[in-house]
Write a structure and sequence with these properties.
The chain has a 9-stranded mixed beta sheet with strand order 15-14-13-7-10-9-8-16-17. It has 2 domains: about 200 residues, 3-Layer(aba) Sandwich (Rossmann fold), CATH 3.40.50.720; about 220 residues, Dihydrodipicolinate Reductase, domain 2, CATH 3.30.360. The chain is of the alpha/beta class and about 475 residues long. The two termini are about 20 Å apart. The chain has 15 helices and 17 strands. About 30% of the residues lie in helices and about 15% in strands. α5 packs parallel to α6 and α9 packs antiparallel against α15. It is globular and about 60 Å long. The longest helix is centred in the last third of the chain and has 20 residues.
């Protein structure tokens, strides 16, 4: 059994952690793009069968009536849950192949599938996506599309090479709100935007030492769960959901919600590479865990006709009198600096706005006004609503997809690889979001100077060990 790797050991191995995956096993696969065939039923595989997977299955298998030919999950109980769900939908799940390891699934069924859907913990996102693309298969992967920045660059390069349809599961990008936002910002409705404030009440982190080792639950294939990550023995503070808070498996609250909440500003503000990131406040965290709460700033240089921009991110739940997290943002604004003071000020100025009712949101501060968007771009409007009603809406210039799943399957059936949140865009948004993780790992007040084109930290070289990761033996591509 391999020794557990803590942060110090990981940094010592940085010189060996080039992170480049050797493409030897699957390169012989054909590049199979489907010809246009509107009546074809796609043969689909679901990798990761709990949580978000049920939305995939409902949209693609239940509503669009495509075929589910295989399921991959490390927990046997998930297979029974999916079959029960299918029975309730009058769908036949008796002949669906099941696997606990996607590598074996690709070996056995690689020639029989058209589309792969990935809804696993983040550390298992990139590998199956890369294998699928090399086999010429379309890939839909939940956000964030990968676990680290090196994977983001590699996924983008592979998507460009293999030219298969790809989609990151970022449903807000296909909705009306963020598309309206882009048109309002581009139309100069609120003038020059110089700062944005985004927040979430998620608290996907922790503090203290690693919990004691526990027996692996029956039916959980632990080695396959660990996959490419450094090996550790089972403890219950990982599976099924708390993996978000651990460096080896997730990306904290930023990884959980950043690609949703930051999508609008990344898109509308035409962001490429920040010049620096800095954690202004951190609560909790450890050498292995993300913070419970933090305030982070990205510094964006001038681009095209846009002024330099400061992007602020606030995460974490306010604690009540008993020290327990509570989700009521109204109780947090003005009392907890992990939420924007600007929200509290605007709430007092416009008491009917209910800015603090949602679990996440963003404010876009321009020299002619302020725009608010909710978690997925919903309730996009200029503050206050009265001003929004008096403003002439700019011309609609962006297409309006039906929904993110139809956008993906239509791309496959049409033989055209373009989708609304392809890996070309999704990896860039993911990279931008998880650069905030580098600021968290640097610590409060230690500005991280980022060389985006060369993918490296300029002033704190020890952080480069987190830009790419090494893969556990047997899990290299």
């Amino acid at each position: 059994m391999m020794k557990n790797l803590n942060r110090r050991l990981f940094l010592q191995r940085a010189a060996l952690s080039a992170g480049a995956l050797t493409a030897t096993r699957y390169l012989s696969g054909p590049n199979l793009l489907l010809a246009a065939d509107a009546g074809k039923k796609l043969n689909c595989v679901m990798i990761g069968c709990g949580g978000r997977a049920m939305s995939h299955l409902d949209q693609v298998i239940n509503r669009q009536k495509h075929n589910l030919v295989a399921m991959v999950d490390v927990y046997d109980k998930q297979f029974d849950s999916v079959r029960k769900w299918m029975k309730n939908k009058d769908l036949d799940g008796s002949k669906i192949a099941t696997f606990t390891d996607y590598r074996r699934m690709f070996d056995k069924l690689g020639k029989e599938i058209d589309a792969v859907f990935i809804a696993t913990p983040n550390h298992h996102h990139a590998l199956p996506a890369m294998i699928a693309m090399q086999l010429g298969k379309a890939v839909y992967c939940e956000k964030p599309v990968c676990h680290d920045i090196g994977e983001a660059r590699q996924l983008r390069a592979m998507a460009a090479k293999y030219k298969v349809p790809t989609q990151m599961g970022n449903q807000g990008h296909c909705m009306e709100g963020y598309r309206n936002l882009c048109e309002y910002i581009c139309g100069g409705v609120i003038g020059k935007v110089t700062e944005t404030h985004s927040w979430t009440n998620r608290a996907n982190g922790g503090e203290g030492p690693r919990p004691p080792v526990e027996p692996v639950p029956a039916g959980l294939h632990w080695d396959e769960y660990i996959g490419p990550a450094p090996y550790r023995d089972f403890h219950s503070d990982i599976h099924p959901h708390e993996w978000h808070g651990w460096f080896d498996f997730g990306n904290g609250s930023i990884g959980n919600m950043g690609c949703h909440v930051l999508d609008g500003l990344f898109w509308a503000m035409k962001i490429d590479h920040p010049t620096s990131m800095e954690a202004e406040e951190i609560r909790g965290g450890s050498d292995e865990r993300y913070p419970i709460g933090s305030r982070i700033r990205w510094d964006i240089p001038a681009r095209e006709d846009m002024a330099p921009l400061k992007v602020y991110w606030y995460e974490g739940l306010h604690k009540n009198a008993k020290g327990k997290p509570q989700g009521n943002l109204r109780a947090a604004v003005g009392e907890d600096r992990n939420f924007p003071a600007l929200v509290a000020e605007l709430q007092k100025q416009y008491p009917d706005e209910e800015l603090d009712r949602g679990d996440s949101g963003t404010l876009y501060v321009g020299d002619k006004g302020i725009i608010y968007t909710g978690t997925y771009g919903d309730k996009m409007h200029i503050l206050p609503w009265e001003k929004m009603k008096q403003t002439t809406a700019p011309k609609k210039t962006l297409p309006r997809p039906k929904d993110i799943f139809a956008d993906f399957t239509d791309a496959i059936l049409s033989g055209k690889p373009e989708t609304s949140v392809s890996f070309e865009y999704g990896t860039r948004l993911t990279e931008f979001a998880i650069l905030g993780n580098l600021a968290q790992k640097a610590g409060v007040g230690r500005k991280v100077e980022w060389d985006g084109p060369n993918m490296k930290v300029k002033n704190l070289p020890e952080l480069n060990a987190w830009v790419k990761r090494d893969y556990r033996k047997g899990w290299q591509l």
